[in-house]
Structures are given as structure tokens and as C-alpha cells.
Amino acid sequence: MQDIPYSEIIRKNCEDEMQIFNSDLIGKGETAVIPLKEDITMIYSSGVPAQSYRLLYSHYYYDKIMLCICLTGQVQHDNGEWLHTKIGNGQSFMYGVERDRTYVQMEKGKKYEQVSLVFGKKNFYECLDRFFDEFSKEERQICIDAFFSKNTTGKLFDISNEVRVICRQILNCRLTRNYRRVFLECKLFEILAYYFQSITQTPTKQLVFSADDVAKLQQAKRLLNEQTQILNFTVDQLCREVGLNRFKLNLGFQSIFNTSIIKFYRSAVLAKAHNELLSEQDKSIEETALNYGYGSVQAFSNAFFKEYGYRPSKLKG
Q: For the structural domain made of 2-200, what CATH number should be given?
């Protein structure tokens, strides 16, 4: 296989449209380099190679973080030492580019289509901080541990169809000036939202809760039962009260109590409202609805009917 300098393939002047190339070596294809945000770039490449070849990219992206997404076909990333990663249609991985000779390889006659998001390290961690606060340190670390680097084996992840759609929207964007800047930045965070979610989602059956975790989840359940108004409750407040992050609180609550936090809370509120309507016949439905955080009688009545199968007016008949 012949080594082709990356700069000869990817051209830096195609923010507004795709560049089409035709090479005796690599056949026909398309490329685009699209700045999404300061020090964050999307690189698109596709084609049907005339013969197998590889592109050296570590020299150009040294000390960067790459999120590689294979939209079509198959490509392989290899540095001849510890990295031998083949990603197929609908797969992706993150790579911390270090001082090595890392190549992406394409096979003769096989169509491929790849998108890479290239981040400066500072910018990548700033993006992480947009998604994970002080209560989500475990999720944040899971994302960092998903890198391929000399210190971690990394992991491959399947991308969702939404990610494919967003990539197409970026490539087809014809907005200009500030409209384009804001659009591309929003699309960047959309991709990262789906990607980080795919990394941090853990099947419930694999979760292990300590006795302390279970005690905190029981405490959360008690606190929810003590609440009186929907508008006064947020999951972040509950996290602070019991000392669990959102990830463990949400999945733990679902696993142990077989219901979501929001659904349990709404049921608890409606149960109190139901008892109040029964025990205090002089209290109106409108007053009860307002007391329990509903903005209108209609909204309260609809939620009540969904929970009990009849309207609150039945209790006043």
C-alpha cells in the first residue's frame, strides 16, 4: 500500500461545498473540511478506491482527540503497535492522537464514507463539561475511558440513525455568516449528545448497587412521598439531598422500584390529591389542582383520569 500525505487528499478550502477529486491511485471520491466551532473541525471523506491505500493523519492531528464515525463501508485505523481498530458501517470510536504514525486504511473497490470530528483537547473537555456536572462525574469518566490510547483499550460504539441524519444536515448546510456558525455549533452538540448517551448507557441488569446506594434510593423514595407540589421538585435537588448522581439515581430507582422517578412522583402527588378530595368535601377541584402544582383544572383532571380511570369530579358527586 502506498502512503499518501493527508494534506494532498483533504483540502482546507471547502467550508461551503463538497470537493470532488479523481485520482489514479484512490479513484473518485468527495471530501469536505468544515469548522464547527473554535478548534473543532468535521472532516468528511468518501469514495471507491482504485486500489487499497492508507492515509497518515497522526502528524496533522497530533495531541488532538478524534471521534471517528463510519457511515458506509469499512475503514481501519492502525499504528502498527497497539492500535488495530476496524470500524464498519454504523460504528464509531474515539482516539487520543499521540506522537505515533497512525493511518486510516481503505480497501480497493469498496465504497467507504467516514466522518471525523477533530477536537483540541481543551475544547473537547469543555464539551464534556457542557453535558456532565458535579453530579455526573462517573458518566464523564466513562466517556474519557472510552478513548483509544496507549493507556486505555477503548471501545467501539454503534451510532444511532439520528447521528447519520445530523452529519447529512451539516454536509448539506448552505447557511452563511452567523446563521451558519450557530447552526453548526448546535449540530456539533447534537452529535455529542447522542454519542455520549450511547457511551454512558448501561443495561440495568449489569448495575451493582451497594447497601449504601440502596439506602440512598430508599431515602429518595421517602423524600418524593413528602413532596406536595410538582413545581417545587427537580431531579437535581433530589441528587443533592441523597448524594447520588443523576445516572445512578435514575437507573437505580428504575431498577429497584420498577418505575421512573417522575412517574413515581406524579403518582404520589395524585394519591395525596385523591385522598384530600375524599376527606375534605368542602375543598374544590380547582383549589386542589393548584395546591398540587397543576396550572389548570383540565391538566389536573387529565392526569387524574390517566392514573385512576375516572375524573376527580366523580369524588364530588
A: 2.60.120.280
